[in-house]
Specification:
154 residues, mainly alpha, 0% strand, 4 helices, 77% helix
Length: 154
């Protein structure tokens, strides 16, 4: 039987998924901000991202707690940690709606996490390109006496 606390597992997973979607949206906005080099907006986005990340960390702790409770309720071996494996072991003793909600949400979390990773990698490339550009400008300005823009005779 699923008790009241364990019934919160799908809710927590849905909250995790929604937060990941929010992070994904922020990451897409961040691309434009990085391209436009809007530092103030970038700082604001970074603060919002940190709040979402903190929220995911908190929700993940709840998810682990409810998952452990589910394992205890259905006497699942303690060495099993994957929610999918737990659901498989429990089998038809679990409410089908509960099972479907958990599985659907886990799939959505996985898909959104992969998309978030992809966008973040693109953002990292934008940042790395910007850093390389700034480094080359600094090197041109501060370079050797012969190559420095400041020391060069015109």
């Amino acid at each position: 039987m699923v008790n009241m606390e364990t019934k919160k597992l799908p809710e927590v997973l849905i909250s995790i998924d929604e937060t990941i979607k929010n992070l994904l949206d922020l990451s897409k906005v961040k691309q434009t901000v990085l391209i436009n080099r809007n530092h103030d907006e970038l700082n604001e986005l970074t603060e919002r991202e940190q709040k979402y990340i903190t929220n995911i960390s908190h929700l993940s702790k709840q998810q682990k707690l409810y998952t452990e409770q589910l394992k205890e309720n259905f006497e699942v071996p303690t060495d099993i940690s994957s929610i999918i494996d737990i659901l498989e072991i429990i089998g038809n003793r679990l409410d089908p709606n509960f099972r479907n909600t958990v599985l659907t949400t886990l799939y959505s979390i996985q898909e959104n996490s992969l998309e978030l990773h992809k966008i973040n990698e693109q953002n990292k490339m934008l940042i790395d390109t910007s850093r390389a550009f700034i480094k080359s400008i600094i090197q041109a300005v501060r370079g050797s006496v012969d190559t420095s823009i400041i020391n060069r005779r015109m």
